Amino acid sequence: MLRSCLLAGAAALAVTFAIPASAETSTPAAASDAAVDALLAEWTGPNGGVPPWDKVQTPLFKPAFDKASAEMLAEVDAIANNPAKPTFANTLEALEKSGEALNRLGTLFFVMSWSKNDPAHQAISAELLPRFSEVEDKVNFNRKLFERVKAVYDARETSGLNAEQKRLVEKSYENFVRSGASQPPEKQAELGKLNQQLAALFNDFGNKVQADEDTWVTLGEGDLGGLPPALIAGYKAAAAERKLPGYAVVNTRSAVDPFLTFSSNRALREKVWRAFIMRGDNANANNTHEDIRKIVKLRADRARLLGYPSHAHWRMSDTMAKDPQKGLDLLMRVWPAARARVAEEVADMQKLADSEGANITIEPWDYRYYMEKVRKARYDLDQNEFKNYFELENMIAASYHMAGKLYGYSFKEITGTLPTFHPDVRVYHVTNTADGTHVGYLYRDDFARQYKRSGAWQSTYRGQDKLGGRQRDAIVSNNNNFTKGAPGEPVLISLDDARTLFHEFGHALHALSNDTTYPSLTGTPRDFVEFPSQVHENWVLTPEILDTYARHYKTGAKMPQALIDKLKAAETFNQGFETVEFLGSAIADMKIHMDPSGEIDPATAEKTILGEIGMPKEIVMRHRLPQFGHIFSSDGYSAGYYSYLWSDVMAADAWAAFEEAGSPWDAATAKKFKDIILATGDAIDRAEAYRMFRGRDPQVEALLKNRGFPTD
What we know:
The chain has helices at residues 32-40, 61-80, 88-97, 100-115, 119-140, 143-154, 163-179, 185-213, 229-241, 253-262, 266-277, 289-305, 311-316, 324-355, 364-379, 383-387, 392-407, 495-513, 526-536, 543-549, 561-569, 575-594, 602-613, 629-632, 643-661, 667-678, 686-694, 700-706; strands at residues 216-219, 247-250, 409-413, 426-432, 438-447, 457-462, 474-482. The protein is an alpha+beta fold.
């Protein structure tokens, strides 16, 4: 059956960009049939097959979609018109088996949308995204099919189903209802139009933000003050890649944040900062205001048609929180402490700036720079000093060590033996260390490049399942946007980057550890899915990881204990800034989507909402609305950005379980975490699974303690 996750795809300066004016999208006639069939075929290769990246050609997506969607709709019609009495096997399990060619195609298509979204792919996406939505609606609105699903649902207590089958029936029925299956035909027709319009707008929004991210601020030799050598080398490499003289700060977070942290040129900091925070908000063809206005209104209209008070109520009906107010309440529970901490941080920075005779008032483009100065003054801790110990390849190896010691996994690089979609992509075979048996494959795509979306994310190319007695194992990818160094030079990353690497790897471990029967139960609610990834960030600063992998990139020496002590002492430093910039985005997301009218003026909404909660003037939202891809490139995190904090409550509380056990490597706790949290997908209610792991519900006090905030 078509997985809904496919549609989530699922974001006067010296700033320039260039995109070719046109691109060829027609299908090569001679190779068309054979090439299309190759794109849709069962994956071949070792261990159940791997993605055929060597066969992907953008012009093939449209004819492949035509063929695969027709095949899936025929399969669904056969299930709907089956004259036999509806049963779990001939209805729910049959649906689980349907649409596999379209699912394979969707995987290839959406990976390209995020990783290689060139003008040719953008042109195809504009046509296909609404059609993906149309096909999904044809399944959801099939009246005969829904009647059969409802019949199995109504008989779920008396038909001899096991617990996992019953869970699948209940989740499937609820998803059908949530998608409009029980609505009359005229409402379904209207819903279909809204969904297709939204799909087109999501694509448009994402392309506009990507275009603004494919820009840069150029630097000359006199603009490098304060920048460490490794960062300068990265900016030089970025300029060379774009055939530019000098240096280039590309308009992505991984390049911008370190510039704002270290550059002593205040005017240039402001220039780089404004280029970054104005993505999607400039007076040019990439302005996203109208897209946002339409998306929010269409979402509200859809929720009303489906009988929900707001888009937030609709989106959260399948989450742990359930009620938008519960999500907002958590955000506001943390807000006062975070805001108060920001006031303290700003006062410290202003005092330092005054003592240096800077004669400035701290502004947003000053925050990271003076934050770093305060850190150094207070803890004698210079990021440039410890960054020398966080070399990318070592941190990747450290993450594999963590997985091996906690869960018994081994990672062997096999790059070159399997096809990839770009030369930068590396491939690892994942096995059980104890007996060498196959677990899955991990693809790594770690570096920024043109036409790749910014940020970091995990993708599941193929989920694990045991449908019909088969054993299909997971294929996953980790995607980052680190800045490449000069040829032959190591890539040094920050502590935040290292945590991000472990975070995305946590998502991969979640998928690799899954052990469920049905594909539809491999995913989890949005406000649970970040929990396994966030908890794995904690291992970065464990003594074993630091002693073994935090080695000086030149000398190979271990990180000195004195430096480790400084890191530990500063662990909650700057939590006001990090928490407030996140909360600003999460609160704005929730508030605009709790409004039943859906009427929004994108030019003023952000300012109004932040004014109401008292957003400190020295900080902007981590994701301003004009570039907020989490919530406007798909429905994925809409009314759901709160979930990072919701999940972090569980992550902090789960980490406390390891601490209470006496070791971050406690074998019994790790086994419980793997077996109960990672392996069960959504086959068990997530709140109940957490209680099974921890013996109680999570406690927010653990999160407040981790961030150094008062717990009373």
